[in-house]
Every structure is written in structure tokens, then in C-alpha cells.
Design a protein that fits this description.
It is an enzyme of class 1 (oxidoreductase). By secondary structure, the protein is mainly β. It has five helices and 40 strands. The protein binds sulfanyl-(tricuprio-$l^{4}-sulfanyl)copper, (dicuprio-$l^{3}-sulfanyl)-sulfanyl-copper, dinuclear copper ion (CUA) and calcium ion (CA).
Length: about 600
């Protein structure tokens, strides 16, 4: 701890700026952040990879990167996008080879992480993906046809009944060439999916744009911000108005409308009209409520107790506190605003420690501000009084995330701040700088926030979820019953090479240090499908099926079966080899693909 320093600082809490000079900065030794070699972390952190299109898995508090999970990108080490199944999944969801992941959210039961699924958006192409946390693998992608960019991503709490994708970019719906230059006809939608099976259920259409989102804790309200209530298409137009919205969706009302058939089917999706003038918004129980907040808000998040939705001002130095239950009582939704705290410049996102504090990133000020939620409700609007502490970060933070902050019961110990700029913090690596994910210990309110670690990050994470490690139960070998393809054992009858016209099918097992066939002979122009099972049952013994000059590298973890199809279009000898270092004879784990010339 930094007891000595903290006592002095906290003595003058009211005037505390939390700005520590460099030599005052807390060192890692002050807090127990060390995870000695061979020991495990207490938490998983799942970070989005931004326009890398993937998810990164860190251990907290060590901040070691444990794994990456490809999602919308093609990735050779894990063979993702190479084998037929993942290749088809990417093809059927649009055929793109990249995406822009922002908001990784883990499924919950009873407002607690259940460790089953992780969902994440694609801001680039309007998609949502599901990752199976038993295997740490993307297992389904939904292309949302009424979205251009899906930004916010979240689930309806307490039980993840819906997965929500929030459409950011206003476009004609359907976007088929109509209304090209008539932006007043553009719109966006909130899309709802079921988690398992992962299916698209319905959309709600609005005229404004939608941005970040978060769910209330009791299954009733879902909130998003909107920064383009102006329905503009230029920066000047989108920032013209003094206010924009927090848009509150009443989910049971929307379900009633769906059940009553009050929707239009667009692109095969039932779309409910949630626009301001919609008849469904007349009367006592509007489907969608539009709450005025200062211009161009960014993040919105719900407090762990489910009482408040807090929206960050971005262009305005305040956070707006909305009392959720009041939305059911007031005629004017603006009357549900119960607080507006002046936090500083460029507030983007807010996280929670479960002790009544909110932590908000200040992009412009390069700080995190800690403030008291109830004090913000009691204080006059625009007051700075609820602010407890401001701490410099390095530099220009976007999201920040506290351990289990998105649940009903945050752990209150660790906070990661995802800084967009690292400037001088690391050895220079050329003009593309790493980002800087900074770890803070927030478990001691007397000592204040303690910066304990800088972590350089490959571009460009936006958000994260931190989940207690004991909530997950990952598999270390595949259960063949979980896979679609049949297991191929070492039995002779299960291993064969079969020809049908110019299609060749190979089924073979593999293990240390060979493949089922030493040679596979095909003819120039054949379409070849190889299915292979890694029959090892020992964990951590991974093989791959790599074929030079055919763009094939399929990873095969223990007990895993995968299939890959390619065309043998050049005669010659190609050494099929294993790219995972699996044993002392790893280099000898090979087979020959012999492609005979077509006369
Ligand atoms: Cu602040 Cu996508 Cu949550 Cu970045 S986010 S833009
Ligand atoms: S701290 S404001 Cu950043 Cu140790 Cu007291
Ligand atoms: Cu199997 Cu290397
Ligand atoms: Ca605006």
C-alpha cells in the first residue's frame, strides 16, 4: 500500500486532484499484483481487439496475454477461417476477412457471470458473434441485415435472455438503393438475438442513430445513447443540437408488439416502429422513451444495483444520472433525470466498484475521475462536489472496466483503463504505437486509486469484461460429441482415400509423429477434402495440417476433428506437415501430397 503518501493526500480530500508527479507514482510493489511464475491469475479479462477483429484474453492482475480468439478475422495459428466449418461461417456472414470488435460481454444468470458465452459486435459490417467459453472459440456469427455498423453490444439482464446489437450508422432500411441522398429517410435499429440457439429475433427502428448500450438489471429496460438526433450526415450537422438522447427501450412492450403482429418484415426480420411519432409510442406505456441529454453523449452503463443508468457527455463535461424506475412513473422522460455531475472534459465510459462509486474516463483530460453516485443525485446539477478523486492516465482513455462491473456485484479490486495513446510510455516501435492498458488497484478507498501496471497492447481494444476465473470451466481436450464431424480413429477402416470424379476425399487420423497416410496421390485439378482427427488424449499436444502453396493450415487440438477443402491446381510434390511443435520428432511429422500432371 502507499499508506504514507495516501494519508497526506487524503487529508485534503476536497482539494485532491489525484495528480501524482512521476516520482510519486505508485510502484507495483505497493500492491500485491505479482503473480509469481507458475501461479494463476484471479481473473480473466476479455478485451476486444478493435479492427484486428479478434478478442484477447488476459490474466488479471498479471496483465499477461493468455490467448487470442479470432472472431471476424482469419488467423492461421488457430486455423480459423482455414478449415471448412469456420471458412463457411465467415462466408455465410458476408465473406469479409476483418471486423471491428468493440464490446465483449459475457453471459450472466441472475446478474452474475455464468461463464458460458461471450458475445461481441462487428462495428465494420453489422454483425454479432458468439464465442463458446468452453473452447474459447467463435462458434456462430449473425449478419444483421438492417445494420451497417453494429456498435453497442450487450445482453438483457438478469439472465441474458436477449443479446442486443446496436446499429450505429443511419442508412436507408432496407439499404437497397432507395433514398440514397435523402438522409431524413435513414434510420437505425436495435437488434435482439436469442443467445442459444444464436438466432436473430427482431429489430426496433428509430430515426436517430444509436450508439453504446447497456441493460437494466430486471429485464425491463435497455438503454442506448444517440449522438445524432439531428439526423445529420456531416460532423457539423451531427453536433448542431444542444441535446441528443439516451434512448430507453421497454423490452416487454416490444415483445407485446411483436406478439400482436405490430411489425413490418424487412430483410426477413420483424421490425417494430419505435420512432418518436410511432403510434406504439402514444399512450401510457411507450415502447421507446427519448431522454434529452447534453450534446453527443457516448457511453451509457447501469449501476450494479440496477437503480441508475449513467450517460457520459463526451462533448459536455458531465455525466447524467437517470433513475430507471422513474421511467415508469413520469409523463416526461426528462423527469427521470435525477443528477448531473460535472466530472471533467471528454467523459466517455463509466465503471463501478460495488461500493457506490463510479469511475469515468476523461478522454480530453487524460484522467479517470472517481465520484460518488448517491452524492451526484443529492448535489445540484452541474456540481463538482460528488467528485472524490481524479487520477492521470497515459493517455486519452476510451473504456475502463472494473472487475465484474457489468454484473450486479462488482468485485471492487481491479480496474483496467484502456488508453488510446501511449506516446512516451514504451520503447519506440515505429509510427504505429501500441495502446496502453493500465491496471489500477481500487480496493482501498482511503489510499485512492493506485496505478500499478502499464501494458502495451496491439491495436486497438475498446472495451473489456473482467470475470472471476472460477466462473469459467474451459475444456482442455475436445469432447468429440461437441463436434459436428465424426471422430477418425487409427482403425484401418476409418482411414481411406476415395475418388468420385475429380473430387478426392481423404479421412485420416494424426498423432505424434505421423498422419494416417504417408502419401496422398491426386491429379492436377482435383478438389481435395481432407478430414483429420488428432487422436491424442493428452492435453496441450496440438498438431496442425499445413499444406505449402495451398494456403492451408488447420489446427487440431487433442480429440479434435476438422475438415479442409482445396484445389490441387499445380502438379508437384507438397510436404503436408505439422506446424505445432509437438514432440522431438515434430519436424518429421509429415506426409506427401503428390499431384500428378493432367496428361
Ligand atoms: Cu467508447 Cu466502441 Cu464503447 Cu470506442 S466505444 S468508439
Ligand atoms: S491518489 S487523490 Cu491518485 Cu493515491 Cu489520492
Ligand atoms: Cu504434430 Cu508437430
Ligand atoms: Ca448531436
Amino acid at each position: 500500500m502507499i499508506a504514507g503518501a495516501a494519508t497526506g493526500m487524503m487529508g485534503s480530500l476536497a482539494g485532491c486532484t489525484g495528480l501524482l508527479s512521476d516520482d510519486e507514482q505508485v510502484s507495483a510493489a505497493d500492491v500485491d499484483t505479482e503473480v509469481p511464475p507458475g501461479e494463476h491469475d484471479d481473473y480473466y479479462a476479455f478485451l476486444s481487439g478493435g479492427h484486428s477483429g479478434d478478442i484477447r484474453v488476459y490474466g488479471v492482475p498479471s496483465m499477461r496475454q493468455l490467448m487470442r480468439i479470432p472472431v471476424f478475422n482469419v488467423e492461421s495459428a488457430r486455423g480459423y477461417g482455414f478449415d471448412d466449418e469456420t471458412h463457411e461461417m465467415l462466408q455465410e456472414s458476408g465473406g469479409y476477412t476483418w471486423g471491428d470488435t468493440h464490446h465483449p460481454r459475457v453471459s450472466q444468470t441472475d446478474n452474475e457471470y455464468d461463464g458460458e458465452w461471450l458475445f461481441v459486435n462487428d462495428k465494420a459490417n453489422g454483425r454479432m458473434a458468439r464465442i463458446d467459453l468452453k473452447y474459447f472459440e467463435t462458434d456462430a456469427i449473425i449478419d444483421l441485415p438492417n445494420h451497417q455498423g453494429t456498435h453497442g453490444a450487450c445482453m438483457l439482464m438478469p439472465d441474458s435472455r436477449y443479446v442486443f446489437g446496436v446499429g450505429e450508422l443511419r442508412v436507408p432500411i432496407p439499404n437497397d438503393g432507395r433514398d440514397l441522398d435523402d438522409p431524413s429517410e435513414y434510420g437505425s435499429t436495435l437488434s435482439a438475438m436469442s443467445p442459444d440457439p444464436f438466432d436473430h429475433e427482431w429489430d426496433v427502428r428509430v430515426d436517430c442513430n444509436l450508439d453504446n448500450g447497456d441493460s437494466g438489471k430486471d429485464g425491463e429496460w435497455f438503454f442506448t445513447t444517440s449522438y445524432n438526433s439531428e439526423e445529420g450526415v456531416t460532423e457539423r450537422e451531427m453536433t448542431a443540437a444542444d441535446t441528443d438522447y439516451v434512448v430507453a427501450f421497454n423490452i416487454p412492450r416490444i415483445e407485446d408488439a411483436i406478439d400482436a403482429g405490430e411489425y413490418e418484415e424487412i430483410n426477413g426480420v420483424p421490425v417494430v416502429d419505435g420512432t418518436e411519432d410511432s403510434s406504439l409510442n402514444d399512450g401510457d406505456e411507450p415502447l421507446v422513451r427519448y431522454i434529452d441529454v447534453p450534446t453527443n453523449p457516448h457511453g451509457v452503463s447501469v449501476t450494479p444495483d440496477g437503480r441508475y443508468a449513467i450517460a457520459s457527455g463526451k462533448l459536455d463535461p458531465t455525466c447524467t444520472v437517470i433513475e430507471i424506475d422513474r421511467l415508469n412513473e413520469v409523463d416526461d422522460p426528462n423527469d427521470a433525470i435525477v443528477g448531473r455531475v460535472n466530472v471533467g472534459n471528454g467523459p466517455l465510459h463509466t465503471a463501478y466498484d460495488g461500493r457506490g462509486h463510479a469511475y469515468t474516463t476523461l478522454f480530453v483530460d487524460s484522467q479517470v475521475v472517481k465520484w460518488d453516485i448517491e452524492a451526484a443525485v443529492e448535489a445540484e446539477k452541474g456540481s463538482e462536489d460528488p467528485v472524490i478523486e481524479k487520477h492521470d492516465v497515459h493517455y486519452s482513455p476510451g473504456h475502463l472496466i472494473a472487475a465484474e462491473s457489468y454484473t450486479g456485484d462488482p468485485q471492487g479490486d481491479w480496474l483496467i483503463v484502456l488508453n488510446k495513446l501511449s506516446k512516451d510510455r514504451f520503447l519506440p516501435v515505429g509510427p504505429v504505437f501500441p495502446e496502453n492498458d493500465q491496471l489500477f488497484y481500487i480496493g482501498d478507498d482511503d489510499a485512492g486509486m493506485e496505478l500499478v501496471k502499464d501494458t502495451p497492447t496491439y491495436p486497438e481494444p475498446h472495451d473489456a469484461s473482467i470475470v472471476r476465473a472460477d466462473r469459467l470451466d474451459p475444456a482442455s481436450v475436445y469432447d468429440p460429441d461437441d463436434l459436428e464431424l465424426d471422430f477418425i480413429s487409427a482403425d484401418d477402416e476409418e482411414n481411406f482415400i476415395e475418388r468420385d470424379g475429380d473430387q478426392v476425399r481423404v479421412e485420416m487420423y494424426n498423432q505424434r509423429n505421423h498422419f494416417g497416410f504417408e502419401d496422398i496421390t491426386v491429379r492436377e485439378g482435383d478438389e481435395v477434402t481432407i478430414r483429420s482427427t488428432n487422436i491424442e488424449s493428452e492435453e496441450d499436444i496440438i498438431h496442425s495440417l499445413a499444406i505449402p502453396q495451398h494456403d492451408v493450415n488447420v489446427k487440431l487440438a487433442p480429440q479434435e476433428t476438422r475438415e479442409v477443402t482445396f484445389t490441387a491446381d499445380e502438379p508437384g510434390v507438397y510436404w503436408i506437415y505439422c506446424a505445432y511443435f509437438c514432440s522431438a520428432l515434430h519436424l518429421e511429422m509429415r506426409s506427401r501430397l503428390l499431384v500428378e500432371p493432367a496428361d
